[in-house]
Description:
Residues 1-5 have low confidence and may be disordered. Helix content is 29%, strand content 32%. By secondary structure, the protein is of the alpha/beta class. It has helices at 8-16, 41-51, 158-194, and strands at 56-58, 63-69, 73-76, 79-85, 90-93, 98-110, 113-115, 118-126, 131-133, 136-137, 141-143, 148-150, 153-154.
Amino acid sequence: MFRVSKNPREEQAVNDNSANATVPTIPSASVPSPPPRAVTESEVLARDIKDGKLSGFVGAGTVLKGEATFKALLRVDGHLSGRITSADGTLIVSVGGQVDADIEVAVAIINGTVNGDIIASKRIEMGRAAKVTGNIQTPALVVENGAVFEGSCRMLQLKEAQDKRREEEARLAASEEEVRAEEEEAATELSDYAV
């Protein structure tokens, strides 16, 4: 056993000269700090909700039906069915989570089961335990080994796809105008010959 005590000579000097006393100190580096405490999942969730990082949480054993709209982050450990939307948010479906819904979010991180179409404006990540049945559309896709995906995938940038569609519509409208102009010109020439 290690015991820290004062030298008896120093004790006598301290008693004699209490005004000029110096007490030996132990350097802080030699005092071990307690090991970091393990943080539970509930504590992490509570901190994320408090900090505004988590907008919603569907716990294991919970079943929700309807439309879910959120801003920051929605985590699903239970069962959610209906429709999920968020312009800038992140949807996390945990290993035990199941979503039966059409999803429209910025980021989708799937580790559970999703039955429905997913449109993500930034990216979709499918973990090893992911099971996705439905069509997906995203500019970036990450699929880990072991993930199961049944459906079609489109990886065009959403803005690019919209611009391309507008260009095609403009081109079709212009070609229709050309066809009408040619038909009118042909009709005018025929009427000139008829006279």
